[in-house]
Here is the input.
Amino acid sequence: MANDFDGMLPRTFIGCEAGYEESSIVLFGAPFDGTVTFRPGSRFAPSAMRADSFGLETYSPYQELCLENCAIHDAGDLDLPFGNPAKALEIIRGFTQRVVRDGKTPLMLGGEHLVTYPAVQSVFAKYPELCVLHFDAHTDLRDIYCGERLSHACVLRRVWELLGDGRIWQLGIRSGTREEFSWAAQGHTALYQYDLSGLDAAATQIGTRPVYITLDLDVLDPSAFPGTGTPEAGGVGFKELLRAIIALRPLNVVAADVVELSPHYDASGISTATACKAVREMGILLHRCSQGAGRRPA
Amino acid sequence: MANDFDGMLPRTFIGCEAGYEESSIVLFGAPFDGTVTFRPGSRFAPSAMRADSFGLETYSPYQELCLENCAIHDAGDLDLPFGNPAKALEIIRGFTQRVVRDGKTPLMLGGEHLVTYPAVQSVFAKYPELCVLHFDAHTDLRDIYCGERLSHACVLRRVWELLGDGRIWQLGIRSGTREEFSWAAQGHTALYQYDLSGLDAAATQIGTRPVYITLDLDVLDPSAFPGTGTPEAGGVGFKELLRAIIALRPLNVVAADVVELSPHYDASGISTATACKAVREMGILLHRCSQGAGRRPA
Amino acid sequence: MANDFDGMLPRTFIGCEAGYEESSIVLFGAPFDGTVTFRPGSRFAPSAMRADSFGLETYSPYQELCLENCAIHDAGDLDLPFGNPAKALEIIRGFTQRVVRDGKTPLMLGGEHLVTYPAVQSVFAKYPELCVLHFDAHTDLRDIYCGERLSHACVLRRVWELLGDGRIWQLGIRSGTREEFSWAAQGHTALYQYDLSGLDAAATQIGTRPVYITLDLDVLDPSAFPGTGTPEAGGVGFKELLRAIIALRPLNVVAADVVELSPHYDASGISTATACKAVREMGILLHRCSQGAGRRPA
Amino acid sequence: MANDFDGMLPRTFIGCEAGYEESSIVLFGAPFDGTVTFRPGSRFAPSAMRADSFGLETYSPYQELCLENCAIHDAGDLDLPFGNPAKALEIIRGFTQRVVRDGKTPLMLGGEHLVTYPAVQSVFAKYPELCVLHFDAHTDLRDIYCGERLSHACVLRRVWELLGDGRIWQLGIRSGTREEFSWAAQGHTALYQYDLSGLDAAATQIGTRPVYITLDLDVLDPSAFPGTGTPEAGGVGFKELLRAIIALRPLNVVAADVVELSPHYDASGISTATACKAVREMGILLHRCSQGAGRRPA
Amino acid sequence: MANDFDGMLPRTFIGCEAGYEESSIVLFGAPFDGTVTFRPGSRFAPSAMRADSFGLETYSPYQELCLENCAIHDAGDLDLPFGNPAKALEIIRGFTQRVVRDGKTPLMLGGEHLVTYPAVQSVFAKYPELCVLHFDAHTDLRDIYCGERLSHACVLRRVWELLGDGRIWQLGIRSGTREEFSWAAQGHTALYQYDLSGLDAAATQIGTRPVYITLDLDVLDPSAFPGTGTPEAGGVGFKELLRAIIALRPLNVVAADVVELSPHYDASGISTATACKAVREMGILLHRCSQGAGRRPA
Amino acid sequence: MANDFDGMLPRTFIGCEAGYEESSIVLFGAPFDGTVTFRPGSRFAPSAMRADSFGLETYSPYQELCLENCAIHDAGDLDLPFGNPAKALEIIRGFTQRVVRDGKTPLMLGGEHLVTYPAVQSVFAKYPELCVLHFDAHTDLRDIYCGERLSHACVLRRVWELLGDGRIWQLGIRSGTREEFSWAAQGHTALYQYDLSGLDAAATQIGTRPVYITLDLDVLDPSAFPGTGTPEAGGVGFKELLRAIIALRPLNVVAADVVELSPHYDASGISTATACKAVREMGILLHRCSQGAGRRPA
Here is the structure.
């Protein structure tokens, strides 16, 4: 990853220049958006984030830590085929498995939300008690969408099939079908509408269990995050999201992803800048958790 | 309106596929922006909303109802001449009159704000007790603007000439001349500045009288709604607007319009998406009101 | 398709208001872009073209004919699933088959280039002598791309499998792998590089056989057509393309498509305007051909 | 117009800092677009051109002259009412009259094309032998459009009513109704289609008569000039237009306008930059003509 | 500054048409962005603000005053060299000195934040007790940045060298290095993070001393202000900023600047519109202060 | 440069994955735009090109060669300070020197045009007979610009000081001051205006001498290349440029650069795509030259 010469700009996400061996966290991109139904383009997100991360300080005044000090390796982007979701998911599953097997924490940059499913599969294989904390505007709980089971609109349903009832907390939700809301309400997931106020309850219920955080950035209001496939008015502000991320510190976070930036839809670049800041804070959070600040036995 | 073949996408606003006869609400576009002084383009709004409405669920978790179940007919867009405001207004007046005469509730998509005037004329002809609830950043109370009485900047003044004192409530206002604010303060309209907190008082005062809602989307903050002709910082958020729409349920809403989206000014598309969501919620509100949830005798 | 009321704007492509029965040409959209590898978004093309067609005159000074006089029915857009190319193609095949069976000429608006394959299948079923005239920047002759046989990059190869050697003429080609160029050079297709100068030779060789025209708009230079998924510098100008379309009049054109507009990538709207003009000229051409100006027995 | 202090940037179009008295050419803006039927926004053109003119050299290598040496006064922009075309035209007529009366050459920046009509009226009042040379994509020869006689689509027809047959040359035309082309062909105007090759014939026929040049920038191909209200593919390149402007030197050009830049539709800014360069070359041309290089007795 | 003719649009910021002599406030542009490290373009801000100010009312309902009544002279934009920060700063220093010497209040429109330094130098020369109130997302307290001491990232550090400890209040700060935050915390500046809640304390501590307000508009959240060089999520809303400006009335404000709009990064124009509104409110504030509402002896 | 894992996308310009040692050509970025006077942003060019190069085939049908087979190493981007041109140039000079010293051919991606100067210095040090072939819209021959000698507007003048008369050929030039054109005409450079027709004469005169090619992409017409700092209408088409590049094969090209892409000014991405294609063809050209196809003894 390092350049062959000194004096060159790094090619990684800013502050993520640790080598793989020395790293405790592995950041990687999953540039896939093949099942998107409205506006595609999240395939360009990892590359855009890496480029614009250089407009960001590596120091977080919120968490009082520098990304450079978090031992993060940026492994680059997976080479994923379009038009064949099953094969793309297999590749993501394989890479996540390797990271987890090597005792490192995966931090995946999507791509559309479907990429979460194979990552959860591999993390779940190591942590059978795994819980999932889901930030999103959308329920993503359909069983089948447009005839497909492997769709961004079904991803949390697929995750539920793996984990079962009582393992998924959904925050910020403000869009879905009547059937999805009803299905969740039958106890399959803990679904909190509109804002992130369910976080404390979620944290208490999760307790010391290992947790996977999946952050669909469209949980943010479109004003703060216009560059996404399905903008849904009425979301949370960035400060609200930031407070939530920081509040996760006591949890045993073992993996995370940040998905659904579609950078071409926002020529102003604020969506990419905001996504970069979310990734910085998530990376620092994962470091704190991996350092035992929040880590409890798996 | 229906396509000649099965398996085709509808050409209506999503979920508004009822036939005219069976409908209780008639959605139609009034693509006119001929008197705009700063940035024109709201003529493209109805067409843009219809296209992007397909990025939206038809189910509203806020009102727990589906747009499909609201008996809404999408009649298409009126063919209006540019450069001749008087003739354009006549056409709008005529169509609204027909809708009202047929016992249906009009839901008009602008276009600039001047289109509200002829629609109010036709609704007022049926409901002499008509009140108007006006969401906007701007007072729109000038008597004459640039020498014209038929101008977007004069529309509420024209409406007042029709209805008289004590019939107009204005919410979210944050821009106007000193004279406009003074004129309103003489008791001609009830003008609430900056936010929507005057809504409860307005609802109480309106009581059971029939009410026309005119929603100028620039009442929203430019962050939430950049795609408009005269963005005015310091507006309300979408959640605030949404709460207000839902709070109108007890009222006897007999007509509504949603105006001033200028879609070309927002390439990110969030303004159109937000307008679509506002239309969905407004359509469901009108359905509830027409179903007697809020309907009282005219 | 007609509106329920007079005085409304049509919902069709401008000038294509003929009813299905009376029509001789059927225009329809195939909004699918699921196998695109670089920049997706052509799914939005048919809807964008329909809306912006109203900036166009229906009269062509080039062909001295009005689109209104061409008996074209706009059937709307097919409802196609994302994430499942095979199923989407099946639907396109079915609809084209019906149009052809009813003795009408199909004019399909893509979508990505893969949509051409099922349309050719249905047209070929009726016209076993079918030839294909292919305008494009790209060879599209890969056998497999990213592991998939049903890919936009393989579409002409699939068409070749159907038709065999000596039936395909490719014009304007300026991008492909070494293998694709070699394969074509083995006599499988007649591939003309860079410009449209091969058209005369192609027309002579095609003679009176029925011909399907597939117009990938990226054959145009990106300066003239920026709104496409894979802009490839060094293309032809619009005048050059226009001359080519008009030069096709003596041929027996039995079907056509216009593909690969990705409207969101060009906020200036010139790509959509240009696509609309190409569709107008193509529609008039098909009319001339169907009227026997160019029609010879199938 | 001059600033009160040295060391400030000029507020004029670059190189047009002459005072009114000492000037021989008067540049002014007519920011009106009230009758536009497709995409409005040319009201913003004069201001955008003035700002971006600073990206241009004042020296023209084509004409080997500097704009500073052309004695051009930039009088600013007229304050024109929207929604009342008649009044706006009256103001333009009045200002042009004053410029002409003071023995100076008007160089007007539109705005939409309708602004040409009142300017021609005032120039014609001084030069009864006036001819008009018209560069455009569109015929603009309708008698009535959308019920209006004062419309951008009728402007050359209005000019014809003033000047009569044999006084108008139209170049680059590629859009209009069948009726407009027929009407022109009856000898009312000399209409040359598609390119500027009719220029030599026009110049010969005009001879020493005074001529008004109206340059609708949409005569350029949309690739060169995307920022316009009604982009029409198949236009001329900038070099072609430039050669035409320079070829006008032998004529007795007594006034000119440059219209139909709609700058907000081209975020890349190339349309405004191109318009600025056209204005520079036109200004230098007018200077040469006013200096007698081309000037013959009126 | 005035035009030579009546009936022309002013070339100043709206409502700032006072002559220099009669003015008490002098608005001027400092279009320099030569040391920007991420996204440049604030050089275009003064010109963009002047143009778009015409979308704004001159009357402020917040402060119940019209900009026309504030005796503001718009002096235009300084002509500043790129590639030589030292020389550019010298010019700004000189002009500000003249304004201050003439007993008028400077209101400078940036440009990047570095332009604040020379303006403060000149104001400080007159008011040795000068305090600085700094609204910003960034600390701007580096001693050296990329090897340079004259950098936008060092501007408040340079100001501190001039004024010393206890004279600078920083509000809304949410980005910087660990070292910058530590350095501030040593008592060099009063740094308030994230929001503007430190304003009351600041006002109390400043008391009657003369104060310079420097408003870096990126203190606003990127949702409200996307058009800036280094968007930093988690900022304040416009209403919050507006309340802060108005709350400054009791202070003895002797100069102000508004910096870091980069208009080309926001094609929707809301950033420029918002900047214009901030300038209007700031101008009215300065007027109130200069009128003695808040003015106390220097 | 290689990733630590298989199955990841490369982080280089497409097809430039050779290691430094095995390479014969070294591609690197010089992201500097600190002296730009109109529209900055070329600092983002190398990163944008690298990302969008994946929309390009590596095979060139024009030169019938694949970029993979050209032994090109992508060394990444130099870390250059803003606000200090002298220091930035020193770093570029140093890196180029190393590449040249190691017997490899430098292929530099700008940045603004000033970056050419230090690269030429280092190449000249090795090849005292060095000639320069300059494609550009602008003369770039000022001695001093805005008081600075190290400016993008002076770069060819600085190069001339190094090389002397008769060593510089300038093609496509269409903008400059009268003084620059005169100075060139005194025999200092061979300046060909407007198009590339001077290329043959240039090639003959250069003969077997080593040549440095500097390609300012604004030599292209703005229609083909809108994303640049100073768009200048009337340029060459891409095909014309391509023919010129290929025609250079017989020359002894020892270094090249491609400068002045400013990607943020072209949201459609065609400028970046076009720049990538130019780089591909230039890389293949350099390979041919370095292979002796064109190489003659230095």
